[in-house]
Write a structure and sequence with these properties.
Blueprint: H1 15-29, H2 36-43, H3 47-59, E1 63-66, E2 71-74, H4 78-88, H5 90-106, E3 109-115, E4 120-127, E5 142-144, H6 148-157, H7 162-170, H8 180-193, E6 196-199, E7 206-214, E8 220-229, H9 238-262
Antiparallel strand pairs: 1-2, 3-4, 3-8, 4-5, 6-7, 7-8
Helix pairs in contact: 1-3, 2-3, 5-9, 6-8
Amino acid sequence: MNGEDKTSPTKRQVPAVTRALAILRLLGRSDVPVGVNPIARELGLVPSTCLPILRVLEDEGMVEFDSNLKRYTIGIGILPLARAALQRNSFSVLIQPRLSELSTDFDVTGIATQLSEPGQMVVIALSQSNIPFRLQVDLGSRFPALISATGRLFAAFNVQDKTELENRFKKLKWDHPPTLEQWREEVETARELGYAVDQGSYISGVTVVAVPVFGASGNMTRSIVAIGISERLKDKQIPKLVKAMMTMRDDIENMQIDTGRSTPGGES
């Protein structure tokens, strides 16, 4: 909705909730346990504010505390919530069997991603190929929204400030990073074609193909992605792969529309 709706209720800030979510996201990103002081420093909090929140999260099973190391990790209590979210995400449920077909037909790993926390895409559905390669992808894996083929689409279809876009681009990590000018050209190509391809830039020897899925606002909120070894996924195969992925997306969108018509409040 454009413009300011003066009848809409004003969002009230709830600092404790915001801080708790920030702590969970930080611990979710960390590969090692983290102490109170580093958590507080990273989030711009004072330790005396951070500690009570951590203790409540520990009591609820959302984080775990190692009394020997005096450090925290993300807790398994988050798993039932994540599982329930995936089970209730109609898009991930509908796309899962189609990703399996895609993997079989094209010898690729198929994934579906969804915009989660700001600047991050999370894997919500996955079908591994039988061909091993070094990119490890799991349900719940997170990637910067601007990285690889999905990132070109995100930049193409989600309006962003050019200066902010450039600053975020500089923080991305690639095996063979494109220049900013090259990347901008690839973003424009993705906008024109309606899909994007990353051939070895993100991960050497790996081709990533992505098509966008749009939300009600018109912005890209999800993507369908195929990942394969570049030597096997030749240029002539990519148009067929893209066509299959777009057909998959359109079929699911039509199914969701039909479900929404027959079920009150039937949004994904």
